[in-house]
Design a protein that fits this description.
Structural class: mainly alpha
Order of helices and strands: HEEHHEEEHHHHH
Shape: globular
Number of strands: 5
Number of helices: 8
Distance between the termini: 55 Å
Largest sheet: 3 strands, mixed
Radius of gyration: 20 Å
Strand content: 5-15%
């Protein structure tokens, strides 16, 4: 079983090895066009399933913030036109999808208390797209499924088949997929911090935001080892470490006259 997992990693490296904006190695099996189509299809489905907010003020507010952030996307790294939708839901959540789609749940606007905190969330989500994290996750899931199918065939009808498959499934999930999720979250934090600072939003607001998010959590966060997100403590520590560079970018942006004024 360990050989199969190792084979997955080797195959992934050979099939689509590239680098993220921070220089981290990635496995990408799908084209940007394929991922954009997937993102557009998923977004259209969400708009049918979820209630779209009727608040023009909320939509204009999030659109204003998003426009400032998108304007700072480096040339050639992402598109300039992004569709923004606010969903009427108490969920404290937001997302961005390939194809230039941004979704924000109205519940988030009660926790992200000003434009800088909202920019921290939206910048983080846009950064997931810019770093091609969706492609990476889909690619790794594809490789894992192929490996599990191969193991299932190899074990056949032996008495060890069911417990072995259960153990292998857990091993792939904990050892291969989830840690990558944590790396992606940390990378999006770092890239999002830079993006919001370049747009003239105060990067220090990201620290206050995650404290608000932690206080608003209704359920106990799972152990970091079994979570795709860093713990709140780890996230805050990493943001603080990246803050000096972000503040330098923020001061430079303000000196250039970038002073967002997005209000509800």
């Amino acid at each position: 079983m360990r050989s199969i997992v190792a084979l997955l990693i080797v195959c992934g490296t050979l099939l689509g090895c590239t680098q993220s904006p921070t220089g981290r190695s990635q496995v990408l099996l799908f084209s940007e066009t394929e991922m954009a189509k997937l993102g557009e299809s998923s977004f259209a489905q969400l708009k049918e399933q979820e209630k779209v907010s009727s608040s023009r003020a909320d939509t204009a507010y999030v659109q204003c913030i998003s426009n400032q952030l998108v304007a700072e996307i480096p040339s050639g790294l992402g598109q300039r036109q992004w569709e923004v939708v606010v969903f009427d839901s108490p969920q404290i959540n937001a997302f961005a999808l390939p194809g230039g789609k941004i979704g924000v749940y109205s519940g988030l606007l009660k926790v992200a208390r000003d434009q800088d905190q909202v920019a921290a969330v939206v910048g983080h989500e846009i950064s997931h797209v810019l770093a091609r994290h969706s492609n990476e996750r889909v690619s790794r899931t594809q490789l894992s499924n192929l490996g599990l199918s191969a193991a299932d065939m190899a074990l056949g009808q032996s008495g060890l088949r069911e417990p072995a498959m259960a153990a292998l499934g857990l091993g792939v999930q904990v050892g291969y997929l989830l840690p990558y999720g944590r790396e992606q979250e940390s990378e999006a934090d770092r890239l999002g911090l830079e993006l919001m600072a370049r747009a003239g939003f105060d990067p220090q607001a990201s620290i206050a935001l995650w404290r608000n998010m932690s206080a608003a959590s209704s359920a106990q966060q799972p152990p970091e080892l079994l979570s795709t997100h860093p713990s709140h403590g780890t996230r805050t520590q990493e943001l603080n470490a990246a803050m000096p560079d972000a503040l330098a970018l923020y001061q430079q942006a303000r000196a250039q006259g970038k002073a967002p004024a997005c209000r509800r």
